[in-house]
Design a protein that fits this description.
The chain has 434 residues and is α/β, with parallel strands linked by helices. It is built from 13 helices and 15 strands. This is Phage terminase, large subunit.
């Protein structure tokens, strides 16, 4: 069976296959530009042409590898018709060629210095791929890893080819946006920008394209950032409140099928809140109810044992509501909160799932992915007003906006944080890419 590689990637990416004078390719742009698919086809094709080749693939956070680049490389192998030639190993994460013994190795860069001790027994590393480059804290962090694999001399004067792919952050002052501009002037580097509009092969489904066009109507700035890959800037308000849709009642044509809770605790100095969110048959999210306790102005603050009781009562009081007996898909809590989590388990033998938090800007972007899709609603009741007010008032610190580390003003943001935890912990259920 013969396969035309050109049929597996969009013509926009032909430069990957025909520009051998470059050893570094920076592929940036909007979501759904198919850049990751093009890279995976390229690295697998080159791997198959070199019996000694190995490919090292990196993401900042190790636990994101299996569901992203690992599956992407598998996809390329299957598309090229070589699925039976490889062994697909999960611990450690690697894909090994049964014929040559070389393969694809997947690494998290939670600690860049650990890469200095990495060894690959068979052959040499011929290519590297840093996916989601914007996740990294700095170029120095990436370069520490890169230099580990480029220092060895390759046979035949070959060069290690490195691919960098990412969606540009909203902030134009983010390090990766400025870094990409600098790379354009360096010999041996090619910087390319692509969007979903470059999908001439029509790999994207009509449904997905329609969702993109809906985002264009709902929030043009979000569309420009997410799907055109433009660094549109931060502004002052973090969220566009037009994307938070009030409801007077649950729609009859889209019933809630399951619910989730998300908790942010504060104890002595700041508030504790619990959000109850319903997920509907059409994969929308509806804020149903909010528990909110603030110790401000109170001489005697509630202890974790007392908060545990109040939170449990809040949950039990949902029983007589229309959603009261629906399955609870997840109870999410800040991973840094141990006292209340342990107290609740001691009292009720029910565990809250500690969410693995990400950079604040990443979590904000994830929330925006949900609300800009037009799938977030809230019941317009008294308890939920604190949620609306805190999101409306959530702002960037103007002193930090024109820096590569923008900060938010940390005042009355407890429901805001709880909502981030909900989105982050239920991203797969909500169909979001984090």
């Amino acid at each position: 069976m013969q396969i035309n590689v050109a049929d597996l990637s969009n013509p926009h990416f032909d430069y990957l296959f025909f520009n051998s004078e470059y050893s570094n390719f920076v592929l940036k742009g909007g979501r759904a530009s198919t850049k990751s698919s093009a890279i995976s086809i390229k690295v697998v094709t080159d791997f198959l042409a070199d019996k000694q080749a190995n490919v090292a693939v990196f993401r900042k956070i190790g636990n994101t590898l299996a569901g992203s680049v690992y599956e992407q490389i598998k996809w390329a192998i299957f598309m090229l018709g070589f699925e039976n030639r490889f062994r697909y190993l999960r611990s450690p994460l690697k894909i090994i060629d049964r014929v040559t013994g070389s393969g694809f190795y997947f690494f998290g860069v939670d600690d860049p210095m650990k890469q200095k001790s990495q060894k690959i027994a068979k052959g040499y590393v011929s290519a590297m791929w840093f996916e989601e480059l914007a996740e990294y804290d700095s170029w120095e962090e990436v370069d520490t890893v890169r230099l580990t694999y480029t220092r060895a001399k390759l046979p035949g004067n070959k060069q290690v080819v490195t691919y960098y792919s990412y969606n540009p952050p909203r902030n134009p002052y983010d390090w990766v946006n400025q870094w990409a501009e600098e790379r354009k002037t360096i010999p041996g580097w090619l910087v390319d920008h692509s969007t979903y509009l470059d999908d001439e092969m029509e790999f994207l489904s009509e449904q997905y394209v329609n969702e993109i066009e809906q985002a264009k109507i709902n929030d043009p700035d979000y569309y420009r950032w997410q799907f055109l890959g433009e660094a549109v800037g931060l502004g002052t308000n973090v969220y566009n409140m037009d994307m938070f849709h009030p409801l007077q009642e649950i729609p009859n044509n889209d019933p809630i099928t399951q619910v989730a809770y998300a908790l942010d605790s504060g104890h002595a100095q700041s508030a504790t809140t619990v959000l109850l969110v319903g997920i509907t048959a059409k994969n929308k999210a509806i804020l149903l109810d909010t528990f909110y306790y603030s110790p401000a102005g109170q001489a005697v603050k509630l202890a974790p044992s007392e908060l545990s009781v109040k939170i449990h009562d809040f949950i039990n009081n949902q029983t007589d509501k229309p959603w009261g007996r629906l399955p609870i898909v997840k109870r999410t809590i800040d991973s840094a909160e141990a006292a209340l989590r342990n107290q609740y388990f001691k009292d009720y033998r029910i565990g809250w799932h500690p969410v693995a938090k990400k950079k604040n800007t990443t979590m904000i972007d994830s929330v925006y992915s949900l609300v800009a899709s037009g799938r977030f609603y809230y019941l317009d009741n008294e308890n939920n007003q604190v949620f609306v007010e805190q999101h409306r008032n959530y702002r960037w610190d103007e002193k930090t906006v024109e820096t590569d580390e923008p900060k938010v003003i940390k005042v009355d943001d407890h429901t805001v944080d709880a909502f981030k935890y909900f989105v982050l912990d239920n991203a797969r259920l909500l169909g979001l890419k984090i």
